[in-house]
Amino acid sequence: MRITTLLMAAPVILALAGCVNNNPNSPTNNAAVRTIGGAGAGALIASATGGSKTKGALVGALVGGVSCGVPGLPACY
Predict the structure, then answer these.
(1) Which residues form the signal peptide (predicted)?
(2) H or E, element range at 14
(3) CA-based max dimension of the chain
């Protein structure tokens, strides 16, 4: 059941990832948006795999917020 949910969520996540605007000056390219997106993704993945949604959201928010400083990713403005 959990793996089925995760497999069904994967195409949706990939489809939404295609909507990301790669313009560095885009209002969607900031730390707040990445943090909120990471929290949502973390909670969704934790829920699908049977983990704690709260812990998943916290880890996702941390990863999303820190992603502004990762080399190779567009920098946040």
Answers:
(1) 1-17
(2) helix 2-17
(3) 41
| SS3 assignment, position 51 | coil
Whole-number Å distance between alpha carbons of 69 and 36 = 16
Q: How far apart are CA 16 and CA 53, in angstroms?
A: 21
Q: How many CB atoms lie within 10 A of CB 6?
A: 16
The phi, psi pair for 39, rounded to 5°, reads -65, -45
Indicate the domain borders of the chain.
29-67
**Distance between CA 30 and CA 23 in Å, rounded?**
11
| pLDDT digits 0-9 by tens, 59-76 | 988 888 888 877 887 777
Question: Which residue, among 53, 26, 19, has the nearest Cα to 39 in the 3D structure?
Answer: 53
Q: What's the predicted TM-score (pTM) here? A: 0.62
Region of residue 72 (phi > 0: left; psi between -120 and 50: alpha; otherwise: beta): left
